[in-house]
Write a structure and sequence with these properties.
With 488 residues, the protein is mainly beta. The protein has helices at 27-38, 63-71, 77-89, 256-262, 368-373, 468-487; strands at residues 10-15, 18-22, 106-108, 114-120, 123-128, 138-141, 146-153, 160-166, 168-175, 202-210, 215-222, 228-235, 239-246, 283-288, 294-299, 303-308, 313-318, 324-329, 335-340, 346-351, 360-365, 376-384, 390-397, 406-412, 418-425, 434-440, 448-453, 457-464.
Length: 488
């Protein structure tokens, strides 16, 4: 039977499909519940969670934006015609639609117990749980970094963070004595946060990938090898386009056709990459597969494309249940789970052949509890852990008793994806809306789910269970040992 937190209780952890709840969060209660298993306790991080709520009120331009504006000449006839053509080709985009998508507001370092999260309209905080002395997170802020929308650690690095914001992408890098990263001239940060334990390290803003002054980067996603990133660029909320950025050598160049377009104001800042587009609708989200062989790009008109990254060809799909509001890949990159804006049923895309084949089948994954028990209008956010065995989701509206909860599902992927409801997670604050959540996959006992909510900030809930993959590997080991005994 699914676990349900009693009224007023908060969830501490999961232990083999049992969600443990307590009257209040405390380090002592967490240590008793899971401290001996994980060897550490994850305390809540307080911050003004209202900062995660998007604000579209006009704001004064940043200093660097003002300087950029002064360097741009007054509108000419050519630029006016160009802007008119752009508006005709790319229909206006309602900025409120950006709130419907699960942008990366919370991101775990893939190698350390270190969390980066949006903690203010113009700032990102980095909290290192392995630091026993440092109680306060490092604050990353700069005049170049305004209206932050997404944050993500660079894979295979562990010391670089990309921040999507108005005006471009800010790249922050950890700097240590004797290991100082390359810093682009003219880029300065208004706040440098020192590392603890006398290491002498600090976070440095090493580069800003910038377009026009009105450009907003609403989402970004790294390729798993960490060499290429994908950014969803939005000009005045009217056009969203996908740009590839190769940052291996920190040099930024555009292909000739893009460099030509920059003369007409479409690009004011270079970046090695190629825009990709199919159709005229605006792109809403992008997701790399874990293997890097595929890229999912979804759009507001209900269509979505799977790109294979060998020759960069794509296969179009469409939905009659609204646009894709969330998407995640399984660990092998052979199955993608999608949620839709007007449906309580997930879609699972199963690739039938190895990459670069685009042959795939779309199958429904029913969630009867969401539609009948919770009476929700649809799925709001999705997160799938790296083991492929836990899926977390939040939902729109619903009955009062379920409002503000996060549903946790046990996932089976053989032969097809099937879900079994484990229960519901509640953070501090009755009915507090979960604004963002993400899995930390560093522990072999199971993932850690971090949920950012309105009431207390970020809370962390370990999901400790027997991994099916571990059971399979153990069974194979026993079978191999038995075979060796029989052969003797």
């Amino acid at each position: 039977m699914p676990s349900f937190p009693p009224p007023g209780a908060v969830t501490v952890c999961e232990i083999n499909r049992d969600l443990v709840a307590a009257d209040a969060l405390s380090d002592d209660r967490a240590k008793d519940a899971y401290g001996d298993v994980l060897g550490m306790v994850f305390s809540p991080i307080p911050f003004q969670a209202d900062a995660l709520l998007s604000s579209h009120k006009p704001s004064a331009p940043a200093a660097d934006q003002a300087e950029l504006t002064e360097s741009v000449p007054a509108a000419t006839l050519v630029s006016t015609i160009t802007e008119f053509v752009k508006r005709m080709i790319f229909p206006p985009l309602d900025p409120n639609l950006l709130d419907e998508f699960d942008t990366q507001k919370v991101s775990w370092n893939p190698h350390k117990n270190c969390l980066a999260f949006i903690s203010g309209k113009n700032q990102v905080s980095v909290h290192d749980f392995e630091d026993s002395d440092g109680k306060e997170p490092c604050i990353l802020t700069s005049d170049h970094q305004t209206d932050v929308k997404a944050v993500e650690w660079r894979p295979n690095s562990g010391k670089m963070i990309a921040v999507a914001c108005k005006g471009g992408i800010c790249l922050w890098s950890a700097s240590y004595p004797g290991n100082v990263p390359f810093m682009k001239s003219g880029v300065t940060s208004s706040s440098l946060s020192a590392f603890p334990r006398g290491s002498g390290g600090q976070w440095i803003l090493v580069d800003v990938l910038r377009g026009s002054s009105a450009e907003l980067v609403s989402a970004l996603c790294w390729k798993p090898d960490g060499r290429i990133g994908v950014a969803v660029i939005c000009w005045n909320y009217q056009q969203i386009q996908t740009i590839f950025l190769n940052i291996t050598s920190h040099t930024w160049h555009l292909p000739p056709v893009i460099a030509h377009l920059s003369r007409f104001g479409m690009f004011l800042k270079v970046g090695l990459g190629t825009p990709i587009r199919r159709g005229l609708s605006n792109i809403s989200l992008v997701r790399w597969s874990p293997s890097g062989d595929y890229l999912l790009a979804a759009k507001f008109d209900g269509t979505f494309h799977f790109w294979e990254t060998n020759t960069w060809t794509s296969e179009p799909w469409s939905s009659s249940n609204g646009y894709v509001s969330g998407a995640n890949w399984d660990p092998e990159g052979r199955v993608a789970l999608l949620s839709f804006s007007n449906s309580t049923t997930l879609g699972s895309i199963h690739f039938s052949s190895k990459p670069p084949s685009l042959d795939a089948h779309l199958l429904p994954v029913e969630l009867p509890e969401i539609s009948s028990l919770i009476v929700s209008r649809g799925i709001e956010k999705l997160a799938w852990d790296a083991s492929g065995e836990r899926l977390a989701m939040s939902f729109k509206d619903g009955n009062e008793v379920y409002r503000g909860l996060v549903a946790v599902y046990d996932v089976r992927r053989s032969p097809l994806v099937s879900l079994s409801l484990v229960g519901f997670i509640r953070g501090p604050g009755e009915g507090a809306k979960p604004l963002a959540f993400a899995f930390h996959n560093k522990f072999k006992q199971g993932p850690l789910l971090s949920v950012a909510g309105v009431a207390v900030g970020a809370v962390h809930i370990p999901l400790y269970f027997v991994l099916i993959n571990s059971v399979i590997e153990e069974a194979k080991g026993l079978e191999h040992s038995a075979a060796e005994v029989r052969s003797q």
